[in-house]
Write a structure and sequence with these properties.
Elements: H1 3-7, E1 14-20, H2 29-35, H3 39-44, H4 47-58, E2 64-70, H5 75-82, E3 87-90, H6 93-102, H7 118-127, E4 135-140, E5 143-145, H8 150-159, E6 162-169, E7 179-188, H9 189-195, H10 215-223, E8 227-231, E9 245-247, E10 251-253, H11 269-285, H12 287-294
Parallel strand pairs: 1-2, 1-4, 2-3, 6-8
Antiparallel strand pairs: 4-7, 5-10, 6-7, 9-10
Helix pairs in contact: 11-12
Length: 307
């Protein structure tokens, strides 16, 4: 063994957090869209399985563990998740069993008793990350790595001094202030805990930074003089301003994979759904081909018109 190899620093330990099934609470259009989530579609297109397969495929050589908060209560999803290495499903099986039971209770809103909002579920998962892990990375079920060095890109940005690195959601500006989104978010575990701002906590002094998950954390780091490392949308071919984005050429985010295709700044659900459906079918048929199309490496053949 060479001296350089003998003294090489081991790669940091990474905890990857994913919430499967977004909570359907709230009176907003976002909440209403989530309530229309179709269990049959979730089983036909199990984004969580595709996400976990892509993580396993592109994270070789890293010491990592994936923690999934399961809001779906679907037996198929539970079985698929437990079939992957390095994955633990939280809370325990009791949460899933009771969640399925209450859905059958003929009481108004009974199906929401065992659904936790996306931000609160991320807080729960983050609180369970042992101190032995160096970094926390978050993904959505419909976001996942598309290149083998995705963790190198995220972690090295933080090693160079960034407080947070990841998917830069700037497509909705100026209506929504740009920020690092949880569909691809990386920060040191200790930095995140020391910040004192959680994914679910509302900032009373900066309501404009409470618009989406990850936004408040981004701006709190910036307020304290810390740097961020944005991965901007890198598509050569775009079919929608939000749906089907590749970021920094390392992370794909479908956008609204497991809910209705409604967005703050692109509210035409019919046209959004047409694009989302076409790209979803392409993702589950051949994810590498879809990414090649979005990168402009092969002719576009997805049946929808690029922007």
């Amino acid at each position: 063994m060479s001296a350089s190899a003998a003294t090489a620093r081991p790669k940091p330990r990474v905890a990857i957090l994913v919430v499967n099934g977004v909570g359907r609470r709230g009176p907003s259009a976002w909440g209403m869209a989530n309530r229309r989530h179709n269990a049959d579609q979730a089983c036909k297109y199990p984004w969580i399985d595709l996400c976990l397969r892509q993580i396993e495929r592109h994270s070789r050589g890293w010491e990592y563990e994936v923690s999934v908060f399961d809001n779906s209560h679907l037996k198929l999803h539970r079985r698929l998740m437990r079939g992957h290495r390095h994955v633990r499903v939280l809370p325990g099986a009791w949460f899933s069993v009771l969640g399925r039971i209450v859905k059958r209770v003929p009481l108004r809103h009974s199906d929401r008793l065992f659904e936790i909002s996306h931000p609160r579920a991320l807080d729960y998962l983050a609180s369970k990350v042992p101190a032995s892990f160096d970094y926390i990375v978050t993904l959505d079920t419909d976001s996942f790595p598309v290149r083998d060095d995705w963790l190198d890109v995220l972690v090295s940005a933080c090693e160079r001094g960034a407080a947070v690195a990841g998917v830069y959601r700037n497509e909705m500006a100026p209506k929504v202030n740009p920020f690092i989104h949880v569909s691809g978010f990386c920060a040191r575990r200790n930095d995140l805990h020391a910040l004192g701002v959680s994914f679910g906590q509302k900032l009373q002094s900066a309501s404009e930074h409470n618009q989406d998950v990850g936004q408040k954390i981004t701006y709190e780091f910036l307020r304290r003089g810390r740097e961020i490392a944005p991965l901007e949308r890198s598509n050569k071919v775009n079919y929608h301003p939000i749906v089907g984005g590749v970021y920094g050429d390392v992370i794909y985010h479908h956008g609204a994979g497991s809910r209705s295709a409604w967005f703050w700044t692109a509210g035409n659900v019919a046209s959004n759904t047409k694009v989302s459906t076409a790209l979803r079918c392409a993702a589950f048929q051949d994810i590498d081909h879809l990414i090649a199309v979005l990168r402009g490496q092969v002719p576009e053949d997805l049946g929808v018109k690029p922007l």
